[in-house]
Specification:
By secondary structure, the protein is mostly helical. Among the domains are: 96 residues; 100 residues. Helices cover 79% and strands 0% of the residues. Helix 2 runs antiparallel to helix 3, helix 11 runs antiparallel to helix 12 and helix 12 packs parallel to helix 14. The longest helix is centred in the first third of the chain and has 46 residues.
Length: 347
Amino acid sequence: MGEYAHRLNFFAIVTKTVEDGSSAVSGGKGDAMQRRFRAASLVLLVGLGLSLISCGEVNKLAARKAYKDAIQLYKQQDYKRAAEKYKEAVDLDPNLTTAYFYLANSYDNQFKATKRGDATNDAYLTEAIKYYQIAADRDPDPKLRTWALQYLVNAYGADKANDPAQAELVLQKMIQMDPTDPANYFALAKLYEDAGQYEPAEQALLKAKEVKPDDPLVYGQLAGFYNRQGEFEKTIEAYKQQEQIEPNNPEVYYTIASFYWDKAYHDARLKDAEKRQMVAAGKEEVDKALQINPNYIEALVSKGLLLRVEAGLEKDRARYDELMKQAQALTDKGTALSKRRAAGLAR
């Protein structure tokens, strides 16, 4: 029932009460007494009602004032006083739902991981978690609800509450709320990976790929995961899939070329023939990057490094010298472009 309806209901009750009381007064002088009774009763009851209504409105006005003060303190990063004012606001008006997220975040910003174990410090995190949860449940703004859940996951992280089980529950809730957002799957995969649960981590990333197959970030996340697991072929395959999504992005080709160079240069288990294959594949990728952007400094350097590895595999001195000359030319071009960029003459 709205405030206006509450007032109408109150005045209906007042009228009925006065009428019931005045009906008990009768007789010759009763009419005059009845009028006096009704007037006195009406003044008394209306006064009482207005005082009750005014009390509620005064609380709301005070809550708004505290909320506005809290906003300014929050902007000034005075999180201790901001928390006090946000708390005052929600105590006065629990329906001021926009305050809960910022109340939680004000407590969160006071928590210091280096002081974990200190009762006062830990209480900040407890209060932050409490109010993030309220914000996630009650805030009408979808953006703030999402923020509350994201910050709640962070609050359960290893450097804070260190409660991965609770973090997982929150992330699963976020996925249920929006099954098409790959960021939630990325966060869940990281949670599993940090816990050493590599298969569930991979499955979470593959689910992200399933729901957003055209999102290049999905493939970058997959490639990064496979690289950390030492799975070279899967790493390259994930980046190759990203190439299909972003055929005009030179960074993808350069990244793949860098992986081929790293494999050829650092993996002592490879035979010379295998190293040559890696170098050839890397040169093919980096040439694609340079076709899109001939002044791509990192790609120029990468190709130079690949040529140096290739030169190291050569038995023919003349061929060796030629490859090293090409590599140096690319290095010189990259250096010149870097200097021009630093001077503001090139991008």
